[in-house]
Fold:
Amino acid sequence: MQVAMSLPARILYVSGEESDEQIKMRADRIGNFSSECYIYTETNSDKVLSLANELQPNLLIIDSIQTISSPYIESTPGSVSQVRECASELQRFAKETGIPVFIIGHITKEGTLAGPKLLEHIVDVVLQFEGEQHYTYRILRTLKNRFGSTDELGIYEMQANGLREVSNPSELLLSQKDEDLSGSAIAATVEGMRPMLIETQALVSKAVYGNPQRSATGFDLRRLGMLLAVLEKRCGFQFGQNDVFLNIAGGIRVDDPAIDLAIVSALVSSLEDISVPSKVCFAGEVGLSGEIRAVNRIDQRIQEADRLGFQEIYISKYNKGLDLKKYGIRVVTLGKVEDLYRILFK
Structure:
């Protein structure tokens, strides 16, 4: 709705889920009317395409494909056959008229697109809008793009009057605190094409309720187990009788292996109860033998840390071709996890 109202064009917004009154209430709350936006509450695909041919909009929005049904298929809306047929009809309409069609689709509990896989195959672009229920941040990812890169990423903040673009996510994802506390480390990550700094938080405490717990929010739990095993085997840290809790601040999920080094630092910091200096950040992948591996786009990560006023960044010594003198930030190169402990915590 926010996109439809902000484009200076003729828009046909087809809603099968909400009434005219509900959509009007939302539109009034968002405000910023600058387009010729027509609302049509209909679920019959024949009637939708008939109106679209008559109106000839610059953009057709279908909300959502699971509510649209074709009269030529004898099954309920949202079924595999209905979704397949309606998507094919919309694809033919777009190709014949040259009018772009935005199809909104439901997702499953696992976060994947509901319906037949054909839905993802026939469209040109797949955008996924994701975010945690209890946080205001939303991430728009490109999963498929026939006309360009899939490395683009948008970060937004949900407000009462719609979405606001977050131009500098690093400052929002770093928590503000008055003193250095143990169990916190800053990671230099890359989401899409955008470098940003995030805070990793770890809590290691004695297990008093039987089996030690392992919990991770915003990070792969299996990878956390691997990092704990590396710390036990290669460095001798005893995590076996401790509860371990890990959290990525800000409510986002990160799959970048370059945050391994920050997570290891946060885990050791919490176990030893020694704080990591607030002006230090990390970018490196940890291997099974305890080596710190090189990561891609290290130059962008260093520049982002330098821009935000950090004084040191710890990276792998295997990142080749770096001119360390050109940075305003001190770059510390490491080869193994043991080196990190010796330099940072002793």
